[in-house]
Amino acid sequence: MTGQVMAAVAAPTADFSNDTWWIWVIKAVAILVFLLLSVLVAIWAERKVLGRMQTRPGPNVHGPFGLLQSLADAIKLLLKEDFSIRGADKVIYVLAPLIAVTSALLVMAVIPFGPEVSIFGVVTPLQLTDMPVAVLYILAITALGVYGIVLGGWASNSTYPLLGSVRSSAQVISYELAMGLSLVSVFLVSGSLSTSQIVSAQTEMWWCVALAPAFLVYLGSMVGEVNRLPFDLPEAEGELVAGHMVEYTSMKFAWFFLAEYINMFNVSAVATTLFLGGWHAPWPLAWIGDGVLNTGWWPVLWFVGKVWLCMFFMFWLRGTLLRFRYDQFMNFGWKVLIPVALVWLVAVAVVQGVRQFTDTDLRTMLMWIGGIFAVLMVIMLVWPEKKEDQEAAAEADRSDRPATPRTRDEVLPAETTFDPFAGGYPVPPRPGQKLPDSPRRRRREQERRKTVTATATRQAPEATKEGDDG
């Protein structure tokens, strides 16, 4: 192995030997306060960013620059009426949001915010804890968090929440695989699953540069993992009226809402730790004063700045892209992200095997391979469909459209029944088309006809009697 990988393997984990119980309490409370305050700021920042992108001011009434708007919304949720659904499973209905928010709060425990500092005279790393399999711990906790969504949708005893929870389970399975595969290449080149050691391995170069394809796969996976646009299918308000959260109110709804934003910070912190150098200063600043900006409390600033850069990326996506169709969403996960992550993982494993017998520089090899791989990914994503497929789709579209209207009857043609699932996914009806009657509607229509017939039968003798009396 080269010196860099040997240094990564031999780098000691964070030293917690000086920590006492009150240091643990201070760190845990600091992480909790950081997440809660960050969520309030993130809600305000997202609304501001979306407002600027959509040519409107965003929050600007409560407090300076609208900064108190998030606090007002939180108080409103706290004071709203809290009710339960009659047919819901009471225990699981209440337990589901607790699972979601608890899982979200546990991830930051192994994220390093900075190097060793002195807290009230005790030298300790800016990290609550670390372990040899810290990244596996993160993946396990994120996988556990989906149970809150799935159980919440199932326990609500309602159609839309159930559909949202089923979508969420499929989404997490799909994108958790791609995320895990994208992280394995980081383990291979860092020589460890410890978060502190992975950060130490990026002293010379961040893995987002050397492992660019894995970083791109992780970016796509992390957006899908936290149910954000364009992957917010479990809570698609245009289709499922908020999905798994439909039947929740007040603080139970707020817990789900809080868990979503905390998970955004979690995936951003993991991206920062594993790909963006962790708490290390950016390249121009890393060499100022012999690395003085990488010591003390300065690294906390760089870490938080990188996290917010990833948060802005998710805000930007929400203001730019439309929600995927479900088939597009599954195709992207299984046919693009997972194959790309697998091929890149094999390439990194081959590079690591070749380096066992040569002195080739790791960074140079990975940058060349990653550059070629990234170009192929872009070409694959933007490559147009086959011409015959486009012509067939255009011909089918033209055949479905009515001829150029000339009269009022042609403008409003007779309605025809069509199959909305003929193409494999549901599509809305066009002018002149109607959906087939649902079984529930047919039953209502039959009941209405029976009622009308029974009423007419009762009224017929009365009308005959009145005629005889006349």
From TrEMBL:
Pfam family, one: NADHdh
Top-rank EC class of the record's enzyme: translocase
PROSITE patterns: COMPLEX1_ND1_1, COMPLEX1_ND1_2
Annotated EC: 7.1.1.-
GO molecular function: NADH dehydrogenase (quinone) (non-electrogenic) activity
UniProt KW keywords: Cell membrane, Membrane, NAD, Oxidoreductase, Quinone, Translocase, Transmembrane, Transmembrane helix, Ubiquinone
Transmembrane segments: 21-45, 91-114, 134-156, 177-199, 205-224, 253-276, 296-317, 329-353, 365-383
Annotated region (Disordered), positions in chain: 391-470
Catalytic activity reported: a quinone + NADH + 5 H(+)(in) = a quinol + NAD(+) + 4 H(+)(out)
Repressor among keywords: no
Subcellular compartments: Cell membrane; Membrane
Compositional bias per record (Basic and acidic residues), positions renumbered to this chain: 391-411
Membrane topology recorded in Swiss-Prot or TrEMBL: Multi-pass membrane protein
Principal location: membrane
Record family assignment: Belongs to the complex I subunit 1 family.
UniProt subunit comment: NDH-1 is composed of 14 different subunits. Subunits NuoA, H, J, K, L, M, N constitute the membrane sector of the complex.
Family annotation (HAMAP family): NDH1_NuoH
Function: NDH-1 shuttles electrons from NADH, via FMN and iron-sulfur (Fe-S) centers, to quinones in the respiratory chain. The immediate electron acceptor for the enzyme in this species is believed to be ubiquinone. Couples the redox reaction to proton translocation (for every two electrons transferred, four hydrogen ions are translocated across the cytoplasmic membrane), and thus conserves the redox energy in a proton gradient. This subunit may bind ubiquinone.
UniProt xrefs under PANTHER family: NADH DEHYDROGENASE SUBUNIT 1 (PTHR11432), NADH-UBIQUINONE OXIDOREDUCTASE CHAIN 1 (PTHR11432:SF3)
Protein name according to UniProt: NADH-quinone oxidoreductase subunit H
Native organism: Georgenia alba
